Amino acid sequence: MDVTTMFLCKEHNSDFGHERFFAIIGNVIISPIAGIIAEATSPIPGGKNYEGGLYLFVAMTTVLFVIIYKLPVRVVPPGEKMFKKSLKLIKNIDVVMFFIVIFILGTTWNFSKYFLFWYLEELQAPGLLIGMVTSVSALYGLPFLLTAKWWIKKLVPTE
């Protein structure tokens, strides 16, 4: 979805940060609702039935695909000599180190993201709390997304 969003932002001269804002707001709202649904639909008191949350996810994903299907997005052909250009990038030690750092950061982020919920389940945390963890972790990026253009102008020198 981010690639489509980036393409449409470029096409309509929009700000990517402002468009991502709505995705994060959706995450902040829907995650606690899914947690509440998991507790409310459980036949065992204190248990969690994630079936309702899964159905909510499937329904919202279906609506999303219908909307995206109707969007007028052009498919841009790939660039010329991409393999040759990729080899040039791989020969640069700064680029290789950047890839390694991003790989390590992604691994640790995914580890904490996925195992955190198992840990909270072991602690018998309520469904609302599990949903709120996702919501609160999404909130930290909002100020940056709304001011991204200003930060980029300050940090990236223009020639």
Task: Label this structure with key terms.
75% helix; mainly alpha; 159 residues; 0% strand; 8 helices
Note the topology.
Elements: H1 2-11, H2 16-40, H3 51-70, H4 82-90, H5 93-122, H6 127-139, H7 142-146, H8 148-155
Helix pairs in contact: 2-3, 2-6
Describe this structure in words.
The chain is mostly helical. The protein has 8 helices and no strands. The protein is globular and about 60 Å long. The two termini are 32 Å apart. The mean pLDDT is 81.
Mean pLDDT: 81
- Major sheet attributes: none
**What proportion strand?**
under 5%
Whole-number radius of gyration?
Answer: 20 Å
End-to-end gap: 32 Å
Structure summary, number of beta strands: 0
Low-confidence stretches: none
Entry summary:
This protein has 159 residues and is mostly helical. 75% of the residues lie in helices and 0% in strands.
